[in-house]
């Protein structure tokens, strides 16, 4: 009975928790970058924290069910770490530095599920029967998700709520003027993240231990990120971080954004498939808009990341979504 409840409702609850944690991480990272933290050093430390956190848990929990780590599985996991963490996250962090927390979160949270849906459809992981109600709901949900995010990002309507307390707005916006490059980096990041999510649906049947898969992936991405950091960052002093927001950003994102979230996503991909897992991403935009109002001097406007229509359709699509077919 308990196992059936976990399989039925666990993925929904777990993914909602990850989307609540994501906006907080976004804010912390942006503030840390504004305070001098190098993005390449940050990602290396973040993945190191994640590896140290998830490895003991994976070893204990899956000690009886862990499949052998074959050469084929090792190559697959290495590529997963390269595509989904080293490449996708570096692109996202660069895009975040060039734009704002609001734009980065809103843009990627709508592009991620759209790219994933398209890739899953191309590789026959997603069954879209346009003549059926479910098929029409998937298409309408994807289109609504895109339209809603465009409205939330570009349209500023009537003010709904004014916050009278909070932190300074500069912590969200930063001072970079590279807005022409930022959206392209975020677009590329979403594409690689969706490739990672779809690719993982193929890898999971080969190595069906989500925690161990996450631990190995974090371990490999730590070394990959370190190599990238050593190549692109020649200032040795930047490897020394302060006991302030820089340290907090590495610990918070390492524990929640990498160790916990990646484990949850691997588990949900195994249970429900990549499209279901990505469908919850827009929820983080709603959470972020609430955080802006409660914690920052940001007014809540109609049209900005506050519209729930697209999110409801997308989550409704997830609720009716069947399990992935698995590898081709």
Alpha carbon gap, first and last residue: 32 Å
Average residue-wise pLDDT = 80
Share of helix, binned: over 70%
Q: What structural class should be given to the helix and strand makeup?
A: mainly alpha
Q: Identify the quaternary structure here.
A: single chain
The geometry reads as: globular
Order of helices and strands: HHHHHEHHHHHHEH
- Sheet with the most strands: spatial strand order: 1-2
Extended strand count: 2
Radius of gyration: 19 Å
Major pleated sheet: 2 strands, antiparallel
Low-confidence stretches: 163-176, 304-328
Strand content: under 5%
Number of helices: 12
Structural account:
With 328 residues, this protein is mainly α. It has helices at residues 2-34, 39-61, 71-98, 101-122, 133-154, 170-173, 182-203, 210-232, 245-272, 274-278, 283-295, 309-319, and strands spanning 159-161, 300-301. Strands 1-2 form a two-stranded antiparallel sheet. Helix 3 (71-98) runs antiparallel to helix 7. The longest helix has 33 residues, at 2-34. It is globular. The relative contact order is 0.23.
Based on the model shown, name its key terms.
mainly alpha, 328 residues, 12 helices, two-stranded antiparallel ribbon
Task: Give a brief outline of the structure.
The chain has helices at 2-34, 39-61, 71-98, 101-122, 133-154, 170-173, 182-203, 210-232, 245-272, 274-278, 283-295, 309-319; strands at 159-161, 300-301.
């Amino acid at each position: 009975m308990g196992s059936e409840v976990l399989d039925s409702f666990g993925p929904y609850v777990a993914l909602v928790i990850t989307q609540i944690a994501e906006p907080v991480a976004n804010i912390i990272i942006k503030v840390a970058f504004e305070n001098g933290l190098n993005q390449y050093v940050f990602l290396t430390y973040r993945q190191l924290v994640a590896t140290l956190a998830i490895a003991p848990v994976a070893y204990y929990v899956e000690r009886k069910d862990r499949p052998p780590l074959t050469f084929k599985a090792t190559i697959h996991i290495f590529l997963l770490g390269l595509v989904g963490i080293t490449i996708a996250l570096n692109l996202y962090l660069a895009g975040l530095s060039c734009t704002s927390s609001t734009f980065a979160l809103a843009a990627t949270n709508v592009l991620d599920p759209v790219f994933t849906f398209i890739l899953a459809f191309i590789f026959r992981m997603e069954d879209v029967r346009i003549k059926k109600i479910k098929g029409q709901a998937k298409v309408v949900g994807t289109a609504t998700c895109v339209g809603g995010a465009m409205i939330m990002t570009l349209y500023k309507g009537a003010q709904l709520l004014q916050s009278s307390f909070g932190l300074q707005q500069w912590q969200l916006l930063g001072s970079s003027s590279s807005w022409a490059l930022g959206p392209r980096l975020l677009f590329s990041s979403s594409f690689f993240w969706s490739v990672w999510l779809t690719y993982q649906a193929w890898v999971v049947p080969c190595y069906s231990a989500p925690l161990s898969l996450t631990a190995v992936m974090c371990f490999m991405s730590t070394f990959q990120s370190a190599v990238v950091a050593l190549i692109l960052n020649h200032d040795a002093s930047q490897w020394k971080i302060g006991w302030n927001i820089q340290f907090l950003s590495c610990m918070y994102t390492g524990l929640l954004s990498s160790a916990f979230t990646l484990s949850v996503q691997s588990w949900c991909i195994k249970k429900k498939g990549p499209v279901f897992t990505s469908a919850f991403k827009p929820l983080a935009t709603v959470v972020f808009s609430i955080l802006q109002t409660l914690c920052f001097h940001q007014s809540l406007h109609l049209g900005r990341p506050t519209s729930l229509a697209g999110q409801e359709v997308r989550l409704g699509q997830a609720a009716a979504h069947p399990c992935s077919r698995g590898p081709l």
